[in-house]
Amino acid sequence: MRYIFLSFILFFSIAAQAQITTNISWTEKTSMPASQVIYYNPSKKLQWPDFKGEPNTTGIVAAITMSGFGYNASMKRNGNKGEINISVYCYFSKDKSWVKPGKTTAYILNHEQHHFDISFIAASIFVNRLKGMEITTGNINTVLPRLYKECCDIMNKMQDDYDGQTKNGQLKDIQADWDLKLQDKLAEVTK
């Protein structure tokens, strides 16, 4: 399975002595066309019609989920007060995700849903770590990209481990173990 991520940053300078407030939120407002993405919603699962990409008919892979997470950041100033706004999103790319004809089973869809879940888990780790950090005008340009990269690395490793250990979902007993593991991780990050 493959996954992608995007990051958009917009900064305005704020005086070093400004008092800074940091606001972190989830968003579904990005530069990606709404018709081409699905933003993560724990109560809405993927369905096969969401997979609109052209399938690669060579190889054994039955389906591909392209998902990831990103953020938008902005800073604004009002007198000697500053505000940093960070909006995080987790998305599924409809046009880059695909399934081969005849492979639209509930079992395979469950495997693909978990790739999207892993992207959300990594995005949630990013949000939770952001909430625990002191972000300032002096460190935002280094701290934010570094933390984002760390969480993308977590996501990529988990995606690779998931496909590697389940052999892309072919090992049903290991897939069942991952189903439980990911259910627990989702519960943990959404507390």
Task: Describe the structure in brief.
This protein has 191 residues and is an alpha/beta fold.
User: What coarse outline follows from CA principal-axis ratios?
Assistant: elongated
Strand segment count: 7
Terminal CA distance reads 28 Å
Helix content: 25-40%
Describe, in plain words, how this protein is organized in 3D.
The protein is α/β, with parallel strands linked by helices. It has helices spanning 106-131, 140-166, 172-189; strands spanning 8-9, 19-26, 37-39, 63-64, 67-78, 81-93, 98-99. β5 and β6 form a beta hairpin. α1 packs antiparallel against α2 (140-166).
Characteristics:
alpha/beta, 3 helices, elongated
List the helices and strands and how they pair.
Elements (H helix, E strand, L loop, with lengths): L7 E2 L9 E8 L10 E3 L23 E2 L2 E12 L2 E13 L4 E2 L6 H26 L8 H27 L5 H18 L2
Parallel strand pairs: 1-5, 2-6
Antiparallel strand pairs: 3-6, 4-7, 5-6
